[in-house]
Amino acid sequence: MITPSDVTAFASDLGVPAAGLQKISELRATSGGMGVWRGIAVLILTLLFPNKTLLPDMAGYNASMSINWSARSLPVPIVHLSK
Amino acid sequence: MPLILRNRNRSQRAQLPPQAIFVPNSAQDIAKSIKIINFFSVPFAVRSGGHTPFPGSASTSNGILISPQNLTTLALSESKDLVSVGPGNRSIKVYEFLEPHNLTVVGGRVPSVSVGGLTTGSGNSYFSAGHGMACDNVASFEVVTANESIATASATENKDLFWGPRAEAITLGLSLGSTCLPS
Fold first, then answer.
1. Residue in A64, A67, A74 to test binding to B, most B beta-carbons within 10 Å
2. pLDDT in tens, B56-101
3. Which of B24, B62, B63 sits opposite A52 (nearest CB)?
4. Are residues B113 and B56 part of one domain?
5. Could you tell me which residues come within 8 angstroms of residue B172 by beta carbon, excluding any fewer than 6 positions away?
6. Edge-first strand listing for the sheet containing B150-154
7. Residue B3: inside a domain, yes or no?
8. Are B55 and B112 members of one domain?
9. ipTM > 0.85 for the complex
């Protein structure tokens, strides 16, 4: 079982600055359920690697997903090969 | 670093929307991300090139996707009998790199197949009939393990981490690159 103090100590050990620790604390306070830890894990990644972490609302990520959804919305083509 | 994902899964069936996509630049970056993933028990997936077609093979819908597309080391040994290849390399890049030396590897049949997935998932090649699968031609892997350490795995060193990925037990560790025997 992870406790809030465990999270703060862990993030601090990783090198998350004080402002980042505050953000983690705020997210923890406003979120609930099992997803909160996943959210905090993603937040720590973005704090430590801001230029290497893509989130769903970022340009690169959306570019990938929009291609995905556009393709899915198309009917599947059926190609008949004949002589 | 470009923040555009150049590579997406080849098959639409394999495309899942992860919570975040992490694009590391080094083994140390990956080790740190694994530490975070472990601490919070977050589901994760790795997409070397995204060629494998089944869902969950190279993405996750509720976790973190690690994309080693920037790990594109390519180096030929002085003796020209080993090539070190980062998992973000596509097969075609390896072929183009070795061609001036009149060498090749037992690599992917499709040029866009990436090395990470190929060598940790057996890897069928046009040369397989004579030289075995791609994984049979790997001399060593550099691996990030679940305890965030970076290890070299070969037939004589960290053997479990060497044989495991060849048997598709890729959850044993995350391959950072492989050293292959050119044909």
1. A64
2. 777 888 789 898 888 888 988 888 888 888 888 989 999 999 889 8
3. B24
4. no
5. B143, B145, B160, B161, B164, B165
6. B74-76, B83-85, B173-180, B138-145, B150-154
7. no
8. no
9. no
Q: Which residue among A45, A51, A71 places its CB closest to the CB of B20?
A: A45
Claim to verify: residue B114 and residue B34 sit in the same structural domain: no
Note whether B90 and B145 are same-domain residues.
yes
Report pTM. 0.80
Contact B64 A63 (CB under 8 A): no
Chain A residue numbers touching B17 (CB-CB < 8 A): 56, 65, 68
How far apart are the C-alpha atoms of A47 and A53, rounded to whole Å?
9
Residues B57 and B111 placed together within one structural domain of the fold: no
CATH number at residue B139: 3.30.465.10
Is B152 inside a domain boundary? yes
Please answer whether residues B71 and B176 qualify as being in contact, where contact means their C-beta atoms are separated by less than 8 angstroms: yes
* Residue B112 within a domain: yes
Whole domain around residue B16: which residue ranges?
Answer: 12-69
Q: How many domains does chain B have?
A: 2
Q: Does residue B128 belong to any structural domain of this protein?
A: yes
The one-digit pLDDT tens for each residue of chain A (83 residues) are: 788 888 899 999 999 988 888 888 888 777 666 678 888 899 899 999 988 887 776 655 644 443 333 334 444 444 555 54
List the single residue in B with minimal CA-CA distance to A53.
Answer: B22
The C-alpha of B43 sits at a distance from chain A's nearest C-alpha, in angstroms, of: 9
Residue with tokens 């973005």: A46
